[in-house]
Amino acid sequence: MTFPQIDPVLVSLGPLQIHWYGLMYMIGFVGGWWLAKTRAQRPDSGWTREQVNDLLFYMALGVILGGRVGYVLFYGFDRFLDNPLWLFQIWTGGMSFHGGALGVLFAFWLFARRTGKRYFQVADFAVPMVPIGLGAGRFGNFINGELWGRASDMPWAMVFPTDPMGVSRHPSQLYEFFLEGVVLFLVLWIYSAKPRPAGSVTGLFGIGYGLSRILVEFFREPDAHIGYLAGGWLTMGMLLSLPMVLIGAAMVVWAYRHDQRRAAV
């Protein structure tokens, strides 16, 4: 298939440029905010509109700061040692989902401490909105022609203009858009529509994202400066996602057992 030639710059106004990727980030935040506000309007939600606005601000900081620090630590630590100021050069690119996830988890803790809410009351409320941002971000990766997949002869394989080898590849960004964005959102949104044991929604997110990312990593080209870690198949994305699956599964089991014990008291 032919890669759709989409200019990464949506609008140019003199020196000011609005990129599609930046728009995708905005869509993710606005979409998550709107959905969170909708759920907060339920009489028994325990949330106000002001709290939703504040939570979004905390999450945005967690995504940006955690994503950058995570990328530097997980994917470019040698470069950081050579030039520590590179950590602050965000305009050069480089964000890590796993680092952003850790940043958001820390943001949940800060928000819970500030508002007096329980940690999982915050996390379980927020994580069903996260796939909106994930899906939008992956679609932005596709428009930019970055983070493409491994070489493939499948009918839907594409030649990305940013690929110096010029070979047909899996559009792995779209695989991630579908699994991490659409599928994971539907699973979490439907599951969390009814009251669930504290921590189970957050745990399910870890399982869902981790499995989706590990699956897509079999089709995604590993980072050129890292390559495969072992056996010609293990990637950094897999290595970072496996703990999410294990911890998420343990959280779901703990949540239901703890809920049963509390109900029996």
Please describe the topology of this protein.
Elements: E1 9-13, E2 16-19, H1 20-40, H2 49-75, H3 77-82, H4 97-115, H5 119-126, H6 130-144, E3 158-159, E4 168-169, H7 172-191, H8 200-217, H9 236-264
Antiparallel strand pairs: 1-2, 3-4
Helix pairs in contact: 1-2, 1-6, 2-4, 4-5, 6-7, 7-8, 8-9
Question: Which descriptors would you attach to this protein?
Answer:
9 helices; two-stranded antiparallel ribbon; 62% helix; mainly alpha; 265 residues
What does it look like?
With 265 residues, this protein is mainly α. It has one domain (9-264). Helices cover 62% and strands 5% of the residues. The protein contains 9 helices and 4 strands, in the order E-E-H-H-H-H-H-H-E-E-H-H-H. The protein has helices at residues 20-40, 49-75, 77-82, 97-115, 119-126, 130-144, 172-191, 200-217, 236-264, and strands at residues 9-13, 16-19, 158-159, 168-169. A hairpin with a 2-residue loop joins strand 1 (9-13) and strand 2. Helix 2 packs antiparallel against helix 4, helix 6 runs antiparallel to helix 7 and helix 7 (172-191) runs antiparallel to helix 8. The model has no long low-confidence stretch (mean pLDDT 89).
